[in-house]
Every structure is written in C-alpha cells, then in structure tokens.
C-alpha cells in the first residue's frame, strides 16, 4: 500500500493569505481526490507567529495595524486590504476587515496543538480562521477560544486548562524552531513529504498538480521496492 503524502503547513490564524492558502489547498486536494488513483494526503498545521509582539488588545483596526507595522500610509493599507479581500472572495471566503479584532495569536496556536492532541486540529484550524476573518471574534481571549473549541467538539474544561497552564506552549515554540531550521520567514509555507517547499497562497490548480506529481513518485518508489 502506497504511503500517504504528508503536507506540513506553517501558518498563522491572523494571516489573511494563510486562510486563502488553506482553502486553495483544500480545493486542489478535492480535485485530485476525484482521480482514478486518488492521492492519499495527511495535512498537519504548524505554528508561526507573524507578529509575536502584538498586544492581546490592539488599539485600532487592521489598516491601522498595517500602517504601523509596515510603514505605509493608511490609504496604502486600505488598498492592500481591498486587494486581499478580492483574492479571498475568489477562494470563496468573505473577509470582514471592518469587524476584525487584531490580537496576539500565541494562545490560538496553543489551542491548535491541544486540538491536534485530541484529533481535531483540522476542524479547529478552520473554525479559528473563519471566526477571525469573517466574524470579528476576539481570538486573544480565553473565553472566546474555549467557546470555539467547544463548537468543534473539544472538551471546554480541558481546553481552558490547557490554555491557563500553557500545556502546549513548548509545542508552539518547537514548530517555530523547525520553521527557522527550514529557513521559513513568511507564511503560508507548505512542506511536502519533508523535501518539497511551496511558498505562499498558490492557486488550487497548483496544489492539485503537485500532489499528483508526488503521488506518482510514491507509486514509482513502491514499484521499485516491489522489484527489489
């Protein structure tokens, strides 16, 4: 039996291109899944904080954040947000930067590791990104994070305990250390089978193409082993 393709994704829940990349990856995988010899894929998300110095309660909107951190004018920031909103819409996502509450994301990453330990990482990653970019939920607050964890079926008490005790903070730091080892300095970043790197929110077709190519390599490796 051919081994599944492993896709490791470094992302931040506060990264607009990460949610777009996530959706495009899913669309590409769905297209490849319709093949007669459909690739088997395992996706794992890893922590990357784009702005670890951001306060939990950031004063101002997303345009203010961009203007402050990127050294651009408010008008340029608004143009950037308009552009990314259009790209998100093409991916089927309705971004609401007018509602968005910019915050520190380390606890959201801790919660994702808690979800991973309980077999629910993918549903929670989707729920957190949707809550952040389309609903204006405050993902720096424990109460909000626990509520979202419960929505996807995780135990609320256990989730709160994990956040209060920082049970998974070391796992967050290990992900970030691995990112540095790989030379990743921007997200989203996709590592396929530990040997191919794909940077940025690529189109769905690009993801479909790469998993088909890698799946064919897996099949060739299996044939070689069979002959040996």
Automatic annotation (TrEMBL):
<dbReference type="InterPro" id="IPR036249">
    <property type="entry name" value="Thioredoxin-like_sf"/>
</dbReference>
<protein>
    <submittedName>
        <fullName>DsbA family oxidoreductase</fullName>
    </submittedName>
</protein>
<dbReference type="Pfam" id="PF01323">
    <property type="entry name" value="DSBA"/>
</dbReference>
<dbReference type="InterPro" id="IPR001853">
    <property type="entry name" value="DSBA-like_thioredoxin_dom"/>
</dbReference>
<feature type="domain" description="DSBA-like thioredoxin">
    <location>
        <begin position="7"/>
        <end position="210"/>
    </location>
</feature>
